[in-house]
């Protein structure tokens, strides 16, 4: 029994992962809020028709910056959703189990990528 491979993480181990995930989720939500506020400010700036050609160049830069902020916000939103899903897996007892192999994902990997559902071996096979 002692050399049998572990099937699940203990409640104590899951608590550690939950704390890591909640901290990352707080950071992600704070960044998402900042990005949304920045996007709203960009949308609030009116166009001044009297400023001529330089305004056209500024508008182009403004549009590119808005697009970058939007892409960052979408990425952060996806990351937050992945973290929330990981919290659900902790609650339902499936956290840390590779969806490809059914084996436990290493603690080192989960500490670095706490929302992952793949062991490093499974991830490398995908590529």
UniProtKB/TrEMBL annotation:
Know the name of this protein? TraR/DksA family transcriptional regulator
Q: Which Gene3D superfamilies match?
A: DksA, coiled-coil domain (1.20.120.910)
UniProt keywords (A-Z) are: Metal-binding, Zinc, Zinc-finger
Q: Does the keyword Repeat apply?
A: no
**What GO molecular functions are on record for this protein?**
zinc ion binding
Q: Which PANTHER family match?
A: RNA POLYMERASE-BINDING TRANSCRIPTION FACTOR DKSA, RNA POLYMERASE-BINDING TRANSCRIPTION FACTOR DKSA-RELATED
Question: Zinc finger regions (dksA C4-type), where?
Answer: 98-122
- Which organism was this protein described from? Aquirufa antheringensis
Outline the segment boundaries, as ranges, of region: Disordered.
Answer: 38-61
- Lineage of origin: Bacteria, Pseudomonadati, Bacteroidota, Cytophagia, Cytophagales
The record places domain Zinc finger DksA/TraR C4-type at 93-122
